[in-house]
Amino acid sequence: MAEKKKFQAIKGTRDLLPPETELWNRVEHTAREVFGTFGFGEIRPPIFEKTRLFERAVGSETDIVSKEMFNWVDDPDLSGAITKIRTEIRDTKTLPAVDGTAARAMLEKQARMGAFNNLAERVRVALRPEATASVCRAYIEHEMHALPQPVKLWYTGPMFRRERPQKGRYRQFYQIGAEVLEMVPSFAAKDAASAGGAKSAPKDAAVDAEVIEMVMAFFARLGLEGVKLEINSIGDRECRPKYVELLRAELLKVKDKLGPDSQRRIETNPLRVLDSKLESEQGIIAGLPKIADHLCANCAAQYAEVKRQLGMRGVAYAENWRLVRGLDYYMRTTFEITAQGLGSQNAVCGGGRYDGLVELLGGPPTKGIGFAIGEDRLILSLQEAGKGGAALGRDVFVAWMGEKAQATAIAAAQKLRAAGFRVELPPVEQKFGKALGQADKLGARYALILGDDEIVTGQWTVKTLASGEQRTVAAEDIVAFLRGEIEQQK
Ligand code: HAM
Fold it and tell me: 170: Cβ below 6 Å to ligand 1?
């Protein structure tokens, strides 16, 4: 008999299991709490959107969109055609085994015959590689500019990028992110990027600093260790293009000394050369012009103010002029946070300002700033620091014997669960010795022992598993008794 192939999770995806999921829940719960204190409400956008949204927002030339997106054509005509071809291949013995070639040839024939001619943009969909684009789309779609501004939203959920999997890098990973969006009525449409000019610099800088302060407060609450914040300003529509040209000119002079990736980026996106980790390029990059020396007056003023505001909030930072980020929508403030125990994939959070993105997606002139935390990496770092938390234990194991005892045990479990205790109730009767052994294995703190005597007298036996101590408690007092015990041990 042919060996059955076991199904396995797809490369780059994984199952999150208990007790680790306890930690995931704690992290998400803490995010909800901390972000709530800063006035953020939760948004839950869909996990797939039109491909065009990400092309427009994140940028068609970025790695995320051009190489890493899971996208497909969601078209009933096409699906129907593929199903038909599959059936034909199965039914006609004349065609060779389904090797893809025959199917492709038939599809091509159908395409030539015009079967898919009305395939519109709207049917290209993608699993979201990030959520800022979705949040901006939702802001426009639900006319959130009519709400009191700014609108502060946070989210958590899976994102998808077809990256090479390794520690801390997955194809389905989770982010916890937040965005602050504010429509600017007086914003000159053609000048979205330098919105508001010098006058709004202090206000924007304070918003940037508060958003960063919030992430840092969240990390501090979780006890994340080795947290390092790096900041930069990448200028706006006015000053960045001039800097990029300067950078390109300088890079062309040293082109021969650069690797193939950087050589290509001189044309496509010279800023990304600054991201290079190639050892041989580091010396060259160190000598390149720095954007901080080429910011326009507005951007320079805002950057200085961001640093002052961070200082006022007691947020420690380092400046990194090479921090350009891999998404097209950023302008001015960018930042990244690293944490310990993560190896090469140590960025646990990335974010920045993206004034003008909502407008680019067809909405009103709007400012934006936000970040996303890599939740998988955050969890890894907490675990490495020994902050993974205990295994999923039980408060009470109900050991029962005898038919009468089962009814009492069920009632006791119901009462204890309603009071919030974690209760394990064996489905079948077990000898007390075996039951207590199982209670130990599950890490239960107490065993509630219910046998004939207990049922008759209404006096229940409670055993503390760690010490072996046994006490008798009146049935009606059980909840209060266990509450008191657990409270005492806190
Ligand atoms: P990002 O830098 O692409 O930014 O991703 C943010 C974080 O997500 C990274 O720092 C990292 O921790 C985590 N991450 C990214 N890719 C993976 C992966 N393959 N596996 C595990 N973790 C990963 C954004 O996504 C922007 N939307 C952030 C933002 C929000 N900017 C403004 N608002």
Answer: yes
Task: Report the C-alpha gap between 401 and 417 in whole angstroms.
Answer: 20
Return the structure tokens found at 262. 């950087």
CA distance 60 to 347: 23
Task: Provide the pairing of β-strand 41-42 with 151-160.
Answer: parallel
Cα dist. 335→156, 348, 354 in Å? 20, 11, 12
For residue 249, give the 3-state DSSP assignment. helix
391 pLDDT band, cuts 50/70/90, is low
Nearest atom in ligand 1 to 378's CA: 12
Beta-carbon count within 10 A of 226 CB: 14
pLDDT per residue over 284-314, tens digit each? 999 999 999 999 999 999 999 999 999 999 9
Residue 19 CB neighbours (<10 A): 13
Q: What sign does the CA torsion over 408, 414, 420, 422 have?
A: positive
Closest CA to 352 of 169, 212, 174: 212
Distance 175 CA to ligand 1 centre (A): 7
